Amino acid sequence: VNLGAGNDTFDNYPGDENTYAFNTATETFTIYGDMPSGTWSRDAAEQVYEISTPPEEREALIEAGEPVPHIVVWNATTGLRTESCVPGFEEENVSGDFIWSPDNRYVAFRNVLPDERGVPDAPTRTFILDTQTGSITGISDLARNHIVWIEEVYR
User: Residues 16-41, buried b or exposed e (16+ Cβ, 10 A)?
Assistant: First the structure.
């Protein structure tokens, strides 16, 4: 797989779990190690993916009153990983399709709250992750099948 982000080109080689980046401007290599697959931002500068916290670690975080991370945004330029927690999912994993906003700041995704799973016709909620602040906000339980970002609003 070869994905470009600015001056960086990323490569994964068969049988090697590392991700390698080559910066064409500085002609330098960086090894990022094992990088889970996720959804690239529209400008290919960041990648968002869900993480699963092992049960023992999850329990320890909850007992300590610490947040349980669910989603990671990885910055391809800096290598920085920002973890975010989804409200109401402390003891559950999050899964879903991530949809980047046109300006690459926000990520939308949908999920059923853990305590509503298995309930017939339980609403699927839409959440928005602000990649600049790391905050996640539940915005609606009305959307059913699609998330669509509108680039411009005409009045």
Answer: eeebbbeeeeeeeeeeeeebeebebb
Residues 78 and 73: their CA atoms lie apart, in Å, by 12
Which pLDDT does position 7 carry in this prediction? 64
Question: Cα dist. 112→61, 108, 109, 119 in Å?
Answer: 23, 14, 11, 10
Q: How far, rounded to the nearest angstrom, does the alpha carbon of residue 65 sit from its chain's CA centroid?
A: 23
First to last CA, the chain: 42
The tens digit of pLDDT for each residue in 129-151 reads 999 998 998 887 776 667 777 77
Are 85 and 67 contacting, i.e. CB atoms less than 8 angstroms apart? yes
Residue 129 CB: number of other CB atoms within 10 A? 25
Q: Give CA separation, 121 vs 94, 115, 124, 128, in Å.
A: 19, 13, 9, 22
pTM for this entry: 0.72
